[in-house]
Model the fold of this input.
Amino acid sequence: MIHIDKHTRNKLYWIDYSDPQKSFVNNKLRESNLIVLNLGYEFASYIKDKDEAQVRIMATDYLSEIMEYSANVDTSTKLPFVIMRNFGIMLENFLDIDVEKFLKDFSKNIGLVMLWEGTVKDNQQFFWPESEDYSLKFNDTNVNKIQL
Done:
């Protein structure tokens, strides 16, 4: 169902998770017994009792850890991949994370499939739903769209 190309430098993918598609995508992923990481929920749960300085120091390590823990495996290539949604929390200013760099670096070894609710331009710029102010820009990196 989801195939990760082992020959690409950045194993970045996206699935249209907008309102008309959301229930269809959820059903397909559930039928395939794939783990979907709700990154915002998991990360917020982790940091709720920690002070800001501590969170800033540990943020990228914890994000990598929870993403690796939530990995699925591509049955044909045997490569791990993470399906994630709700990851706007990574854009919080106090975390001081270069989100695009973090995701590109992570996707060198583990496939990363973003369930994207907003609009996408040229498979490189990802706009948050109902907002042109916030976006992820993967310059010089094509993020492949997966059709389920």
User: Anything to note?
Assistant: The chain is about 30% helix and 20% strand. The CA atoms of residues 19 and 66 lie 26 Å apart. Strands lie at 12-16, 36-38, 72-73, 80-85, 111-116, 120-121, 125-127, 135-137, 144-145.
